[in-house]
Amino acid sequence: MTIGIVGAGQLGQMLALAGYPLGLDFLFLDRSADTPAGRIAPVLTGAFDDPALLAELARRSEVISFDWENISVDALRAAARGTRIAPPLRALAAAQDRLAEKRTFERLSIPTTRFAPVDSRAALTRAVRRIGLPGVLKTRRLGYDGKGQQVLRHPADLDVAWDRLGGAALLYEEFVAFDYEVSIIGVRSRAGQVAVYPLNRNYHDGGILRLTLAPWPAPRLARAAAASLRRVLDAFRYVGVLAIEFFVRRGRLLANEMAPRVHNSGHWTIEGAVTSQFENHVRAIAGLPLGSTAPRGHCAMINFIGTMPAARSYLAQSALHWHDYGKEPRHGRKLGHCTVVESSPARRTARARGLLRRLCPELSIEP
Ligand code: AMP
Q1: What is the pLDDT of residue 327?
Q2: Which of ligand 1's atoms lies nearest the C-alpha of 173?
Q3: What pLDDT does 31 receive?
Q4: Ligand 1 in contact with 206 (CB < 6 A)?
Q5: How much of the chain is in helix, strand and coil states, percent to nearest 5?
Q6: Exposure winner among 73, 113, 240, 335, fewest CB in 10 A?
Q7: What confidence tens digit (pLDDT) does each residue in 158-194 have?
Q8: CB 136 near ligand 1, within 6 Å
Q9: Which of the 8 DSSP states describes residue 36?
Q10: What pLDDT is attached to residue 148?
Q11: Are strands 240-249 and 252-259 parallel, antiparallel or unpaired?
């Protein structure tokens, strides 16, 4: 069976690496073949919404998925015709638009940040009057890793933010002085079976994920997050892996956003769970039974952003797993990650601290 994937980044590469042992083949579509997945599988190269390329991907694949959500739902729907697409395009459409995403959370009674759509300078003034300062103005579409966002703290910031972002459809939301951030990742099979991974605690810097600790020992939050995730999975009759990111404020969860795909905060599952998120995504979309999401230990995952450290100084460490995506270094770019699997939360924290000090001394993250 061939799985077609739109987007050939590191997530696509990790999907293919997880699917090969199951006897599956992969075909990608991306703007360039010089991509992480292009190192291990064929890539159709051209625009993500090229109808001829999407049609070829559909013709040569039993099911189409995506490793990147900024792709055209309409082009994908038109080209796919008889071919199955998973996760469902309705879920992709909801995740692409921050307003639709917030409304999905509201409809499913999942607590989220207070928000207001903004489509004019006057609407921004009204939104700020209603929701207050500080707040965050975000583009509704094409935002990721903190891109397309402006924090507003003072009345004078409105004009500056409007000048920067005013050309696009926007959303204004309350600034959440959160205690910390978590995410939950789960998977739903074609038969409706659901499996959920343990809770992830996430540390960001400049809007980009830098460190994940999992399982995060907060059973009440884990139950609440899993319940929200199940509601979204069932509402969309979802197939594949879904992630939801939350702020934790005074012991309560506030949904920030969802990703209809495998997620960076679940990279630890490659070595740290019985079945990785990548294998479970592939199993789900291929119509296979799901694997166990149980953890194998206490994990820390550190992202390499902008520069890739030299592997040779770290590979001798025990239970340290190195992932170099083979990408050109560029400021703010995710180039690789490493995961450690430890026997207790205390050992995991100590290990993460030591690694962070050596690998990313510029960061002020203190797990
Ligand atoms: P996002 O692209 O919405 O996931 O935002 C990236 C990061 O920016 C989040 O993980 C938070 O650390 C921060 N952030 C986003 N929205 C807010 C908010 N409303 N209040 C406080 N921090 C935020």
Answers
A1: 96
A2: 19
A3: 97
A4: no
A5: 35, 30, 40
A6: 73
A7: 999 999 998 899 999 999 999 999 999 999 999 999 9
A8: yes
A9: T
A10: 83
A11: antiparallel
Q: Which pLDDT score, from 0 to 100, does residue 163 have?
A: 93
Q: Is the CB of 143 under 6 A from ligand 1?
A: yes
Query: Can you say whether residue 153 is alpha, beta or left, with left for phi > 0 and alpha for psi between -120 and 50 degrees?
Result: alpha
Distance 363 CA to ligand 1 centre (A): 18
- Separation of CA 79 and ligand 1 centre (Å): 34
Q: What is the largest CA-CA distance in the chain?
A: 59
Those residues with Cβ within 8 angstroms of residue 4's Cβ, 6 or more apart along the chain or in another chain: 26, 27, 28, 29, 57, 58, 60, 61, 63, 64, 65, 83
Please give the distance, rounded to the nearest whole angstrom, from the Cα atom of residue 360 to the centre of ligand 1: 21
Tell me the torsion sign for CA atoms 112, 118, 119, 123. Answer: positive
Nearest-angstrom CA–CA distance, 287 and 48 = 25
- Cα(289) to centroid(ligand 1), Å: 35
The domains located in the chain, with CATH, are 2-85 (3.40.50.20), 114-174 (3.30.1490.20), 180-359 (3.30.470.20)
Gap between the Cα atoms of 54 and 28, Å rounded? 10
- Across the chain, mean pLDDT equals 96
Residue nearest to atom 7 of ligand 1 (CA): 207
| Alpha-carbon distances of 107 from 61, 90, 102, 216, rounded to whole Å | 34, 15, 9, 28
Contacts of 39 (CB under 8 A, 6+ apart): 13, 326
What's the Cα-to-Cα distance from 285 to each of 18, 67, 69, rounded to whole Å? 13, 13, 17
